[in-house]
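Appendix C: a fully annotated inverse folding record. The material below is reproduced so that readers can follow the format used throughout the book. The structure is listed first as tokens, followed by the designed sequence.
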């Protein structure tokens, strides 16, 4: 477990969840996110191009904190890590995938949405879980209820979160970071609306900075504040 990566995720607060339709758009996308002050992307295996896009970003924009998302198989664990991902995210809790990723020394944030799944995560020694699908499963209110018995668990809620409901999630101290596609939805990437993506990202970073001041001011991807990817 790379404590630096976890610390950076907590510091950045927001994790753009990306569905990339064409790896040729990867560097422009990374640049737009950095322009918006968010040098981080979770590239999901929802498109065939995910691993190529990750490898491109890892090679050409190493200052990005790169994650592999929608990791559903051990094969995708390997492909994400080989492509340079520094953390892995799954929508659900698959013990085989979690065990395999941990065996490789990787950071994996599996999805949970029940107390039983949190306890499965704890069996694997995990303290950080994705809460998915956040809004549909009960939202911030539900997470608050979960924090009562599970005080050491950190949540990364994702699913249906955007600028309109971010405040409810960031008001919960055990919410370590929040994921979402609203900053860089697939349609905008596909249409090469990178100015719009940078603007949305900047707005989200500023909002998160106001809601959680410790998250610090907007920052670029020059490594000055958050350092280079390892
Ligand atoms: C995910 O897998 O993390 C979510 O699908 C992202 O959810 P959103 O598109 O509702 O932000």
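Designed amino acids, in order:
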């Amino acid at each position: 477990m790379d404590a630096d990566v976890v610390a950076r995720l907590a510091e950045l607060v927001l994790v753009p969840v990306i569905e990339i339709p064409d790896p040729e758009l990867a560097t422009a996308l990374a640049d737009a996110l950095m322009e918006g002050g968010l040098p981080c992307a979770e590239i999901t295996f929802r498109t065939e191009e995910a691993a190529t896009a990750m490898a491109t970003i890892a090679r050409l924009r190493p200052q990005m904190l790169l994650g592999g998302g929608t990791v559903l198989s051990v094969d995708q664990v390997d492909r994400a890590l080989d492509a340079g991902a520094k953390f892995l995210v799954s929508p659900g809790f698959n013990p085989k995938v979690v065990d395999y990723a941990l065996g490789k020394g990787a950071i994996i944030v599996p999805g949970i949405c029940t107390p039983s799944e949190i306890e499965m995560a704890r069996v694997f020694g995990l303290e950080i879980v994705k809460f998915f699908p956040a809004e549909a499963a009960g939202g911030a209110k539900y997470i608050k209820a979960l924090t009562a018995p599970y005080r050491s668990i950190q949540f990364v809620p994702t699913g249906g979160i955007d600028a309109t409901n971010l405040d409810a999630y960031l008001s919960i101290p055990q919410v370590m970071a929040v994921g979402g596609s609203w900053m860089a939805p697939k349609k905008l990437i596909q249409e090469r609306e990178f100015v719009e993506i940078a603007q949305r990202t900047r707005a989200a970073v500023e909002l998160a900075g106001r809601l959680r001041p410790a998250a610090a001011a907007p920052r670029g991807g020059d490594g000055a504040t958050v350092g280079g990817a390892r």
